[in-house]
Amino acid sequence: MSPKKTKPGPVDQLTFEQAFQELEEIIRQLEAGQLALDGALALFERGQALAARCGALLDSAELKVRQLVPKEGGYELEDIEEAGE
Predict the structure, then answer these.
(1) Which residues contact 39 (CB under 8 A, 6 or more apart)?
(2) Of the candidates 82, 17, 11, 15, which has an alpha carbon nearest to the alpha carbon of residue 47?
(3) SS3 at position 5
(4) Residue 13, Cβ neighbours under 10 Å: how many?
(5) 23 Cβ partners below 8 Å, 6+ apart?
(6) Could you say which of 25, 46, 49, 68 would form a disulfide bridge with 75 (CB–CB 3.0 to 4.6 Å)?
(7) 40-85 pLDDT per residue, tens
(8) Residue 80: DSSP 8-state
(9) Nearest to residue 36, comparing CAs of 47, 44, 48, 25?
(10) Is 41 helix (H, G, I), strand (E, B) or coil?
């Protein structure tokens, strides 16, 4: 079985959904165990980069998460406090 082609686009330009979908496909291919060593290593390296991209995008999204809190006469947006603060 030959490996499916990975998307050639730069990892740093992928959306979270694109990176996650490609990462899932890479995992399926690696778990199948039908790849030559060179192909497996290339996919593993791409997977590492995709995982880092997903992590960075999630961290960025977490910084943007806000909550509505009751204030006099309505509601106001505030940053969500992290656990332990």
Answers:
(1) 3
(2) 11
(3) coil
(4) 9
(5) 47, 50, 51, 54
(6) 68
(7) 999 999 999 999 999 999 988 877 766 667 788 887 777 666 555 4
(8) P
(9) 44
(10) helix
